[in-house]
Amino acid sequence: MAVQWKKIGLFTLVVFMLYVIITDPAKAADYVQIGFEAVSDAARSIGDFMTWVANGGKD
Predict the structure, then answer these.
(1) What is the DSSP string of 7-44?
(2) Residue 1: what pLDDT?
(3) pLDDT tens-digit profile of 1-59?
(4) Among 48, 17, 14, which residue's Cα sits nearest to residue 6?
(5) Is residue 59 part of a domain?
(6) What's the predicted TM-score (pTM) here?
(7) Residues 12-49 as b or e (16 or more Cβ within 10 Å = b)
(8) Do 12 and 19 touch, CB atoms closer than 8 A?
């Protein structure tokens, strides 16, 4: 039963994404940019943490 809900949720998400892209491409591009910035910030934070750990936890 959970698999059906997962498929329905994924289908709904894809339809919503297509709707946003078709109706307002500029806003869709903004959403993509926000997503990439979030991933980039997360990767930078993980890198900073790993550098801190490699230095023995010292600033």
Answers:
(1) HHHHHHHHHHHHHHHHH-HHHHHHHHHHHHHHHHHHHH
(2) 63
(3) 677 999 999 999 999 989 988 999 998 899 899 999 999 999 999 999 999 999 998 76
(4) 14
(5) no
(6) 0.62
(7) eeeeeeeeeeeeeeeebeeeeeeeeeeeeeeeeeeeee
(8) no
How high is the pLDDT of residue 37?
Answer: 97
Tokens of 9: 């949720």
Helix axes 2-23, 25-54, angle to 10 degrees: 120
| Residues 6 or more apart whose Cβ sits within 8 Å of residue 27 | 20
The count of domains in the chain is: 1
Domain limits for position 28? 2-54
